[in-house]
Structure formats: C-alpha cells, structure tokens
Protein 1
Amino acid sequence: MAQTSTAKRLDGTLVELEPKRPGFGGGDPPVRPNVTVGSNAWLAVWMFLGAEAMFFAGLIGAFLVFRLSATIWPPPFQPRLPVGVTGVNTVILLLSAFTMRRTLTCVRLANPGKAVRLLGLTAILGAVFLAVQGYEWLRLIQFGLTVSSSVYGGLFYTLIGFHALHVLAALIWLAVVFARAIKGRYSAQHHLGLQTCAMYWTFVVALWPALYGLVYLY
Amino acid sequence: MLKRNTLLTSLLAGLAVVLAPALAHACAVCWTGDGDPTADAFNWSVLFLMATPYTVVGSIAGWLFYSYRRAAAKRSQGQATESPLHLAWSEKESGR
C-alpha cells in the first residue's frame, strides 16, 4: 500500500514526498525469472560427487608421486596386473552406464516395463564387474601382491579398492531403486530417486577408465 | 647441568637445520635437485591437486549455469516444470 508523507524545508515550507512502498528503498519489486533447474536432492548429489572427486584426486595425487618418481614400474619381483581381463571388465562397466542412461530415458518416456528391465541389466553388469574384480584380486594375492608386499601393492589396493567399494555402494543403492521401480514408484514426472542414483552410477563408471589407464596401463 | 646439555643439543640441532637442511632432512623434498624424478613427481602431483578443485567446482557451476539457461529457455516456450529448487529469489518466499 502506498504511503504519502511531507517534509519541512529549511525555510519552513512543507513539500510532499513521493509515495513509498513498504520494504527497503521503495520502488517496484525486482523482476526475476522464477526458473527452476532441479531439486534440492539433485543439487546435494552434485555436491557429494564433488567431494568424492576430491577424495579420489587425493589418492591419484599420492599414486602420481610414487609412479613418477619410480625409475622401474612395476617394481621388480611383483606380479603384473591383468590388463586384458580388466579391459573387458571396463567395457562391461561402460555398458552399464549406457543401460542406466537408457533407463532414465524410458522412465521419462513413460515406459516403466522397459525401464525396469534395463535397470536390472545395469545391476547385473555392475555385479559382474565386481565379481571379476574380486576374482582377479584373489589371483593377485595368490601371486604375492598384497597391501604390505610393496608400495606398488599398497597403492593398487587402496586406489582400486576404494573404487570397488564405491561400486558396491552404488550397487546397493541401485538394488533399492530397482525394488522401488518394480513397485511402480517412478513416473515420467516424478523419478528423482532414480535420477540421483543414475548420477552416482555415472560418476562411478566415469571414474573407472581414468583409474584403469593410470594404474593398469601407465 | 642436564638443562645446559639439553639447551646445547637443541641449539646444535637448530643450527644443523639452518646450515645443512639436506643433511638434517629438514624438508621432505629439499634433497632433490632440478630434473630429479622425485622432484618432478611432487611437482606434477601438486599441479594435479591444485587444478582439481577448480575443475570440480567449475564443472558443477558450469552444469548449473547450463541447466538454468535450458530451464529458462523451456520456460519461455511454456514448458516450465514444477520443482522445489528455486535458484532465484521468489516473491512468495520474500513475503511481499
């Protein structure tokens, strides 16, 4: 509501001031587009992924110090890493990211049946990746590569182990989302749980080729 | 007497650190010279760790900016979607 008031000049005459609106400074309220870009959970997952990226950056930084300062790598008398099998495993994991993105597309296009099938396929591909990794780890331990065998072993199990833990966590999250998808909890308009899970899964998958190249190939 | 010995030892240790840092291992990387693989390794690692926060925060900010522009474009086409996050101040929240 507009208010009018007067002010007295030094010569004693009264002048009417311009009407002021309630609030700070008066004038029209600022015109801003009320644009929404995503949910709070979406933003929170972005922040979480940023923190995760920093965590892995620390581990990669430690790896770089030892790798670049070593004249012979891998160190002598240490088993070689299974590059071929892990390469195939990398393809499997990348395929799971593709099926995950397809799941999101299917949900957005209101095709829940296909979305559930693709989500299940994503979980299977993730589980296969973990199983192959676990098998290869057992073989490496048998060949003598342990956390305490050398810096090489310590770095390998720390870096790759933490990634495997993240894949496991993502797989558990995926299982929960899969169970909810079967119950029909996600629709074309409301699928935030699936979307955030897909973001985390994509991060975990996108991280792996970098780690594979660094630890296995470099 | 014991106090005097302790003082003398501390003084000598301090002098060693100042006069011969490499010998005293006063700095983790001081004993490496230019072109040494260890120094290069530390340099590359420091550069990588220095660049990472900028990359991470820049990526998130860039993606938010891109999403905002995309949402604004959709809104202008009359395809606005309802969502609880408002990056801009809204009249309802301000009480006006």
Protein 2
Amino acid sequence: MGNDSYHLYEPVHMAFDSNDNIYVSDRRNSRVQFFTRGNQSGTTVAGITGN
Amino acid sequence: MLSYITGIAYDSQTNNLYIADTGNNRVMQYQYGSSMGNVIAGGNGYGLGTSQLSTPYGLYFDTFSNSLVISNCAMPRIVWWRIGDNNGTIVAGNYSTSLNGPFDVNLDPMGNIYVADTENHRIQFFLSGHSVGRTIAGITGVYGTNASVLRQPYWVILDKQLNLYVSDTLNHRVQMFKRY
C-alpha cells in the first residue's frame, strides 16, 4: 500500500467508463485514481495525492 | 478536501464522476477533465433534513431521471436526489421499512431498487415507486455461513440477466443469487 501512482490504500469501490477504464475510490488516500485499461499506473482525478 | 470516500459512480453519457464523500456527508460531482469538484448532494452537515445526507456510502447514477440514488448508512435510508436539486426524497427506509446500516444501493433497468441492508444481514428489494421492501437474500437479523444467510453484506450488483452478486463481507465470500 502507499500513495504513489502504483499503490492504493484501502480501495473500497470501483466504477467503469464505456471504454472499460477504471475509477477506484482510494479511501485512505482520500482520492480517486483513474487507470486506463491494462495500465497499472494510475492518475489522480479527484482529491489530493501525496498527502 | 475529500474525507473517507466510499462509493463512486460514473455517468458514461456526460463523463461526470460522482463520489460519496462520506466523512463530509455529501456527494461530489467531478466533471470530465476537471480536478475541482462541485457539491451535488448534501454538504449541509449531518442530519435528517431533506438537504442533508448522513454518512452516504453507496450511490447509483440513474441516467433516465438524471438522479443519484444514495444509501445513507447512519440515518438508515435511501434518498433519491435529482442532479441540480437542493433536496432529496426518501424512497426507502422510513419506519415501516426499517433498514439498518445500509451500505450500498443499486437499480435494475426497470427502476427497482436493491439495498445491501448490511446490519440486518439481508438484501432488500423495493419495486419502483414502492417504499415497502421485501427480503430477496439473507434472513433478517440472522447471520451464518450456509447458502441461505449472509453476514454484513456490503455491496450488491446485478448482471444483465438480473442475477444478483453480493459481497458477503464478514463471510469473506461473494454470493450469487440467480434471478430465475
């Protein structure tokens, strides 16, 4: 676990867009991470990363 | 700042993302490409008022009515909140249909509502427009490990054939309930 682009800390829920990209609510990091299909490195689309 | 987020929902028509910002008793909307969110439901403190949410956990975005359906875990009820409105409407969880710590809510294409009624160890089903539910999985107040019972189910989802999948959390398993 951790708060960089390859880690999550208590992921609790997911949502998908129509291209099967994944949004993950990364609870303990208070952020939502976005993963394009097949990519293990996420980007933060909501919340603040690195805190 | 987001605080203790839980459920998220994606609107594939507008590409908006909705986040249950549980610790702040609100739901946020993030428009595509924006890193700044808008409060779309709640955000008026913890309470029972129609403009308030109380520990929102699960949420479902309903395309047909452009609304969110939100499970409030602490004040156990399900609220329907049209995007743009300042108030929600209770659709399940008043006294006659008491829920206990409902974690998640989901809808089928007919608008029927499925609630993971977590602390009651069951899944409740509400026909569209009806506030009196019935139990379709688990037994009220009874938990265990055999196939007819659940133990604190957190999430509930449906497939296209309307089979039900339940994360039976304290049993560390996923249970499937066939529609037919």
Protein 3
Amino acid sequence: MAAGPRGRFGRGGVLARLVLRRFLLAIPTLFGISLVTFALVNLAPGETTGGSGGAGLRSTAVTREAAENVRRTYGLDLPVFLNFDVSDRGKRVRRSLRDLDQPATSALAERRLVAATTLALDEVVAALVRAEPSKRRVLRRILAQILLVIGEPGGRAVAQGPVDAMQRWWQGRRGTFRPAVVRAAVQRLAAGEPGADRAVRRIHRRAVPDLIARLFATDVPGERARLTQALSDITGHVVLYDPRAPRAERRSVLGQWRDWWRAEETVHRDLSGWERFLGTFTRTRYGRWLGRLSRGDFGESVYFKQRAADIIAERLPVTLALNLAALVLAYLLSVPLGVWSAVNRGRWLDRAVTTGLFVLYSLPTFWVALMVIIFLGGIEGPDLFPTSGLYSFRPQDYPAGSSLLDLLWHSVLPVFCLSYAALAVVSRYQRAGMVEVLDQDYIRTARAKGLGETRVVWKHGLRNGIIPLVNLLGLQIPYLLSGSVIVETIFDIPGLGSLTLLAIQQRDTNVLMGVISITALVTMAGLLLADLLMVWADPRISLERSSEAGS
Amino acid sequence: MSKSGWASVFGRLRRQRLTMAATGLVALLLATALGADCLASDLPIVLSYKGDLHILPNLRRPGGLRHHDNHTLRRDLASTGSGWAVYPLIPYGPNQTQPGGALDLNARPGSGEHLLGTDDVGRDVAAQLVHGARVALLVGFVAVLIYVVIGLVLGALAGYLRGPVDHLVSWGVAVMLTFPTFLLILVIQGLVSAQSLWGVMVVIGLTGWAGVSRLVRGEVLRIRALPYVEAARGLGASHVRILVHHVLPNALGPVAVAATFGMASAILVETGLSFLGFGPDAPSWGRLIAAAQVNRTSWWLTVFPGLAIFVTVLSYNFLAEGLQDALDPHHRARLPRDWTD
C-alpha cells in the first residue's frame, strides 16, 4: 500500500490494532487451556470410579441407582463433546416406562419412576389407562408408592380402584400442577405461612424448579432456610441453610444447591426446542466444564467444606504479593548488576560475577530454602529470621502498626528463596542485552559528541538494553508460581502453592482443578501484559507490524 | 597481541576448563550410577564363604545369602577363620535398614561407621546418595528424550509444512507454555499418582515438549529458506529427504543445548517431586531431603543430598553452556532460551 510504514492510522492507530490483535490471539489460547484442564478433570480417579466405592458394590437396583446419581452429579452420564440425545423430564419418564417391560431393567425403572414422584404422575396414569389389564399391576404399585410419598389423601384407594375413577381423580388433581398454582404455593412456603409446606409436598418434585428459582432469587435468610428445608425433604439431597452459620458456610450451601441443580435440572423440567438444540453443545461434559470455567466456579471443596473458588480467592493474593515482591527485588538488583557486568565485560570480576550467578541459577529452591532455615533460622546457627507463616501472633494481638513490620520480617526468607533464581536469569539477560547495545553505532556517536560515560550507559544504553527484560517479565511468572509450591510449603505460608499440596494430599479434585486453571489464566494474563508492554517499549515492533500490514 | 585479546583467549580457555570440568563430573556421575551396586551394597563384590566362591553376589543375590549382609558375613568370616570377601566401598544397601540385624530409628550424623550419617529409619545416607545418582541421571535422560522426540517431530512438521499444521502446533505450544510446568506435573501426579519411576519420567516428558518444539520450529523455518535447501529441492529431493537429511541436522545444535539444560531441570523436577512426597518410589536425593523434614535438626540429610543435586545440575548447566558457546560463539552470554521449562 502506498501509505508508507506508518499507514493510514499513524502510530496510535497501529498500536490500537496491535493491542486488539494480541487480545484476539488470547481467545484460542483460552480455549486450549480449557481443553487441557478438561483432560485433567477426566484423569481424576475419584470421578471416573464414581465416588466412594460405587464400583465395588453389588450391582443391585439400589446401588446402580446410587452410582447413577454420582455419575449425574459429575456429568459422567453426558457425552464428551456433542449431545445428540438431550433428555428432559418427559423423555426420561417415558424411557423408564419402556424399561419397565424389559425383565433386566424393570426393577431399576420402577425405582426411578417412584423416585420421580409427581414428575412421572401424568405419564404413569396415562400408561395405566392404556395398558392391558394384565400389565396394570406394576403400574398400580408404582402409583400407590408415589401417592404415599406425597401424602395424597385416599391415595391407596385411587391406585387400587377402577381405571375410570383414577382418570377422574387425575382430571381434578392435575390443576394443582399448573405453573401459577405451583408458584403461589412456593411463595406461601417461602413466606412461612402455616400449611404451605403440606401444599408444596403434594406438588412434590414438580415444585423443585420454583423452589430453586426462589432460593436463588431471595436474600432473606429465613426464606432460604425454609426453602432448603423443603428441597431437602422432597429430594433427599439434604443440605440445609442455617442463617446463623458463618458466611463461607452459607455461601457453600447455596453453591451446593447450584451444583445439584445443574446436574438435576433436566430431571425436573421439560426443555423447549431451542433449549434442546443448545443442549447439544452445553449439556455435555466439556460444555459443563467450559461453563464452570467461565463462571470461575470449581464446585465444592471436599476438605475445606467451602467453595473451591472462595478458598483460591483467599489465597491467591498471598502468592501474588510474594511473587511480585520477589520479582521487584530481582529486577531492582539485576538491572544495575547486568549493566555493570556489561560495562566491565571481559574483566575477571565480570567473569566471576557471571559464573557466580550461573551457580546461583543451578541451586535447587527447596535446598536453598532448607539451608537458610537451618543456618539462618536458628537450627545450626544464629536465629535471625522467622521460618514459618506470615505472622507471629493473631492480628488483634499486635500493637498498632507493628503487624506490617512483622509481616515484612516473616517474608524476608521466602522472598529471597523465590527471587534468587530470577535474579540470576534476569541479570544475565540484562548483561547480554547491554553488551549488544553498547556495540551499536549510536552509542559510539553519543560518546563522540562528548557525553559522559555515565550518561551514555545509563541513559542511552539502558533505554534499549532493558527491552528484552520486559519480555522476560512475562516468562518469569510460570516459573515463580512453580517455585511458590515449594517455598510456601517449606515456610508454611497460606498461599496457592501450599494449597495445591494440601489439595493433592486430601484428594480434593475441585480445588486442584481450580488452582491449575487459575494459575494458567494468571500466567496468560502476565504474558499478555508483557507483550503489550513490549509493544509500548519497543517502537520497532509496531513499525514492523504496520509495514507488514501495509504491504 | 593486545591485552584484551589475551584476556579473551584466557577467558575462553577458562570457559573451556569449566566445560571440561563439568564433562568430567557428568562422566563421574554416570560411572557412579552404572556402578552403584558395586560402590554401595549390602553384600560383598566377591565372596568366598563356606567353601563356595560367589562372584558379584551383590548383583546376583544368591538364595543362600538371603539372610546375610556385609556385617553378618564379616562376623561369620572372622569367627570361622576361613573364607574371604571383597566389600564394596560403602558396605550398606540404599534400602537396608538393619545392618547386622540392628535397627536404629534415629537419624544419626556422620561417624566412622556411616560416613555421611543415617536417615530416620537407619538407612545409610552415602549409600542412598550413590544409588540416587542412578535415579537422577535416568530421569534426566529419559524424560528429556521423550520430550525432545515429541518436540522435534512437532516442531519440524510445523516449521517445514507451515500453514494449518504450523498454526495448530504453535497454538498447542502457546497453550502448554501458560501452565507452570512444575505445578502441572505436581497436579497430574496428584490426580493419577504415578508413583513408579517410569510414570514420573513420562509425566515430565509429556509436559515439557513445548519449548523444544518452538525452538525446532524456528530453526527449521530459518533453514528451509536457505539457498542450499532450495538447491536440494531443485535437484528433485523429496520433502522427507530434505527435512531429514538437509534441514534437521542443522537444527540439532540448539536442541542439544536445550536438551542438556533440560536434563538439569528434569532432575530438579524429580527431586522437587520426591521432596514433596510425590516422586518415584526409588532411593532419590529428593526423598532423602524430604526425610529431613520430619526433624529439621538432622541437617546432614539436607546438606549432602542437596550438594549432590546442586553439583549434578551445575555440571549439566555448565556443559550446556559450553555446548552453546561452541555452537554459537557470538551469543555466548545468551541463556537457555527455554529456561522456564
């Protein structure tokens, strides 16, 4: 294009397009991250064997039903990527009715239909009416059990009476399942009106979608308590909301119901055609995982009895702060060191420093951490620094202002252990970058026009010599996060790294998946940031791009 | 010759000296690893006992000596007065907890009996160090071999074929590089609990290919545009022939450097895993240091294995740097490009 290297947009426009481009390039990377973490989820042994001992039990209808529930909770009943058979309430009930005719599956189907209670009522009555008299026995038995569960007055007589009486009963009764009636009953129950729980019990599982909707819509603690009570009574999934419990626990209860509903929604509802179409993609194992990932919802931590995301959110700042401190320290020391080395390159002192840094780079982190604890933490030498945790006392026990000092005191050794390897790498990069720059013509020009050496090196030289370090900034992050596992474990710091180890020891898959996803996202964000800084720091990049785009 | 010229020659020599020293150390470690059973074992190397001559019973483990070790044999030989034995330098096995039937459940510092001390179940530290060399070198070699092969194939295909293949591979590399490698390995270990040595090597191998792949892709992209490759194409060479005979051999230099650096990192990963308790079920240096965590006052369990790891990693790193200098003297100050892996 004739517009020349700066193009139609000028440098500002080119920059904006570059930034946009970098952001767009992050999308496929995010997709890849979700695929890798999804593969990891499917590695998790606790989920593939179906929880606690489901596989080892005798395969009766009861244990098969339990195993099925576990599989549904983890979405293992769903296809991996595409679901061409999206089931909803009606479809499941009709399938169970068909299974009733097969001797191999009839026991399980009967249990399923009884468990479905009012969800199956319409189809069961219709099937009873249609069926030949000889096949009605099992259906009558199912109906009787359902009516018993929901506490229907005279239910036994209905189930055993003549078919036309049953039909008449159903004509009168079906009105209680109309959406407006159900909603009103749920509202009365939430408000705590006497007798409302009986009405809701008669609607039973048909009321679950409204109960759930109301549970997430309201923020009145008493309503939440009554709604979870009703849901637990109806579904047998007992998770109760206690208004006096700590906040984390209350959040956890709501989260558990959300998880439950995600797995059970299609059991309790009929889907529209559009929902069925979308379900081809969303009602799959990968679709579920992507959904959870995008909401930052990693489910419940088995060990902490809290939302995994909450625990991670609590611990991530600790790790980030320590790593940031280590990074700043490493850069503050290594930039002057690298420049000094480059200026004095070839002298024995430079060689000694360069070799020494290389030696530093080869030291294993956990060993260094243990050595500083042994020789600086008071085991075989002076007791200079604390070696465990971030604080000596509880926060309220500090005299004013001293807690920050104590925190700094506690972070000396961990930050040192995190930063020394970065220090070695960054200063080597800085030296290499400076060596290259100091050989450039423009530096000779600067010297020739009489500028002082300090100005030449630290102003003109450093300006370009520091550019590679910007890029390095992004690359440090995964390395630091990896180091955090070891450093935090050894120094007993409540960060993401020690959490990882704890989660592995406790087989807390949800926390592990959260940690690995979050660290990948943090790394990606860091790389993106370094990339953008690079574009800003090095005008050559945007010029290259614009001439590329213009040609 | 000018002063700075001499200085640079001196410097280069010095560097070579370091590289040579590193090579010597790696060779020594290799010898230690190969001969670990003859350096440290609970049975003698040659033994004449009750009229039978046993050659290398430490390797063959004859059934007749099942209830013996160096100490019971030494006692027997001294009391009967007949027979003789050649004992290994360190007369303990790496997993031997009761030399001569005595069980000691306290970690002991170095003494005349155990030069470098014992761990918390009475195993000799020196013997474990010698056998740990085997684990460390094996892990470094096999894990790196796995990911170099994967990286080489993917990188070569991406760089040579370009187009969609390149996009796909580059995407995979970008994704893999967003995962902190050690953390990823740790999580995988936690999920599948691959406690076998081979399991650990495979996990390290499968997570480390991205750096090599990126490196090879870049080299292949650069080389395939050179005139001599064009000449080969003009002479009618097939794609496979061009790639395998003309392009890849010239791309191997940087790969060798990356692989040598990689062996050092793989050893660090393995020892780190063992230290955290998720390493292979083998006498590893990391496992020794983990044992020191029970009681941090037993410093000899931290210092000696740590030194072994450090010296090994340092040797590999110096070797890699020497290799890099030899291959690319203009960029001698440059770093392991993929040091993050």
Protein 4
Amino acid sequence: MKKQWLTFLLIPAVFLLACFLPFSSWRFGGPIKEALLMLQEYAREHFLLCLVPAFFIAGGISVFVNQQAVIKYFGASANKVLAYSVAAVSGTILAVCSCTVLPLFSGIYRRGAGIGPATAFLYSGPAINVLAIILTARVLGMELGVARAAGAAVFSVVIGLAMHFIFLKEEREKAKTAAAFAAGAEEEDRPLWRNGLYFASMVGILVFANWSGAARGEGGIWEFIFRIKWVLTGIFLASLVGILIAWFKKDELKEWAVCTWTFARQILPLLFIGVLVAGVLLGRPGHEGLIPSSWVANLVGGNSLFANLFASVAGALTYFATLTEVPILQGLIGAGMGRGPALALLLAGPALSLPNMLVIRSVMGTKKTLVFIALVVSMATVSGYIFGSVWG
Amino acid sequence: MKIEVLGMGCPKCRQTKENIQAALAELGREAELAEVKSLKEIAGYGVMMTPAVVIDGEVKLSGKVPGVEAVKSLLEAE
C-alpha cells in the first residue's frame, strides 16, 4: 500500500517537472551537457589510473592488514598517547568501509579507551578514508589532498583531547567501572615486511602512473621523473606481480579480488551519480551549471571567516556518499569557491551528516554530540581559514 | 540454533547473511536467522567491527565477511 502512495506522489511530481522545467532554453541544456562532460572527464582521466588501483589498495588493506592488532590500542588499559595517535590514522586501515566506523566508535567509547580516542577515531575515520584521500589528491590537487589528510589526523587528536577534558569528571567515573572489550583473536599473518612491500608496490604504481607533467619545462627532478614515469610504473607493476606469485596463496588473491570488487560495486554507482549531479548543478571548472557561479562565489568564495564557516556547516549537515565529495567540490571550486572553504568542507563533510549525527547521539547523548559537532565545525572553519590564507 | 548477523545494513552484512543461507542450504541444516541492525544491540555484544556472526548468543567472528566455506566450518562445530 505504501508503494502505491509513493507512486501516487511521484507521478504528479514528475509531471510538474516535465511541464515546467525550461528544457528549451540554453540555460538548462548546458548543465546536462556539463554533467556528461564531467562524467567523461572522470572516465577518461581518473578511472583507470587512479580509481582502479585505489580500489585494489583499499581491498588489500581490508583483507590483509591485521585489524585486531590495531584494535588492541583502543583498550581501556592501553597507553593513552598511543591510543590517540592510532585513532588519528587508523581510519585508513579500519574504516575502509564507512559502516564500520559507528560500531567501532561505540566499542571504543563504551568499553575501551574512552571518549577521547573514541571521538578522535569517529572524526578521522571517515575523513582519512584511503580512497577519498587518493581521489582528492588526484582531482583537487596534491595540496588539498595532503591538507585533508593532515588536517583530519591532527584535528582528530585535538577534538578527542578536547572532548576528554570537557567531560573529564564523567570520564574518570567511567574508567573505574569500565568493562574490557573482547579484542578478538589475532590472526596468523605473513611477515610485516612482506605486507609492507606488497602495499608499497601498489602505492608505487598509483603514484607514478599519475605523475603529472604540469611542471614541464621547468626541468629538475620532477620533470625527469615525469619522463620516465611509465618505466617506473612498469617496474612497480612487475614487482607487484612477483610479490603476488611468491608470497600470496590463491584463495588469498581471490579474497582480495572479491573485496576490491565489493568496494567498487558499492561505491562506483554513487560516484557516478555524484559526478552527474555535480555537473548538472555546478558545471565543470570554467563552465556554468544550474546554480549560477555568482551565488557560489558570494557564499563561499574568497577566504572570509563567513565563507569557511558556511562551508563547514553545510558540509557537516550534508550526507556525502564515499568519494562523492570530490566531484561536488571540484564543481564548487570551479564555480568560485575559495580553497580555504573547500578544505573546510572536506574536513567537516565526510565525518558528519544529519543521519549520522542522530546515530552518534544514540551512543553519546545529545550534549556530547552537540559539543562534538561544534568542535568539528570550528576546527574545520579555522583550518580552512589558515589553509586559504597560506595556500589559497 | 539461532544465528544472528550483526550489521547496520551495508552490503557486507547482506553478503554475510547470504553466505550463511548458502552454507545452511549446502549442509542441509536449518537455523533461525536474524539480523541485528540496532547499534545499541550490536554494541551490547561487545562487537567492535561489523559484520559479525553470533550463534546461540556467542560471537563467533567479527570484522570480515565470512566465505561460505568459513560459515560451514563454524556450523559444523556447533
């Protein structure tokens, strides 16, 4: 019965849209073309050399990195300095699938190291997602990619510590009665250095295949590497194949392939839609979409505190499916958004969204959730402002 | 035998459920299969990483999607 109501509402909605959208004017034809051209750009420039290797890396991390070993650092009796440091960066290892962030956060908060490391992880997990960092660096430039990763790591510790001290009395009470959590059995592993080389070879392929020739004509080592980039990529590819043959069993490879495929299957359709939406609404850099660039430039252009704040808050409320923040930001920057506000959005966006805030609230309670949100938004605003001033 | 799949609704959790169903079918066994989606309940089991599989109240594995063979070995041990 519910389905019928949906259709009943949908039909007039589509009818009205079909009637009144100004299809015949150039203004509207443009955005559709922009959407398709943006999609083409992603397909031609980012898919094979960046997204595909990135998914293999994410799959590799998910399957081969001993996650239980990392979780040990979040125990109630674990060294606090380690707990915070690990929380800040372990998002790359533990939060490859965004749905693991919430149960893990809940576990660390309730039964583990407490609110500090828990919120540090809650913030950095989605923000330091390995796929997102790779695509950000590729599409939006190395500076934003690095700033995003560094910002996420540093501010997760700051936010975690802030939460810990703001709620210090409560934390002390809890620590007395905390039940330890089941860290789970550690798995048999191949030696760390072998795993290290395996990942290094994949990263090598990713880095050199994407080595940009932007500094052409300037000479120096950058350009030299650019000229031999395919040789370097080939060397890393050959090492990867060698490593796989020598150190990996067949069903491990199968597990890796399946995991990679699962990520791709889950994330690519949403990225596809994200690119189209970004194209329609904002257009490619230098072109117009449905939303006039002047609106974007007015709201989030330049590097004013307001622009950064607006971007932070908008990012915090909006839900971004993994990776979709990249084409949307690409469109926004192209339409006039300043780089400072762009970073602000990157730092506040992935970590928070309205639905996500509600779940966090069910774990921590309204008061702590509001403090957390306030901390994230202010950190994002400040980092954006600083980044915009120095690198904008 | 009661089997619970702990997860908040992402594809990995659905895949886990499907693998369990396949394993049950291959072994010719029956079991009550339930999904636990509420974060509170998942946390209540002390589980940190989803998807997780709980058999008769005991957490048997967590953090990865178990292949059909892995589920079968779990079931055979029950």
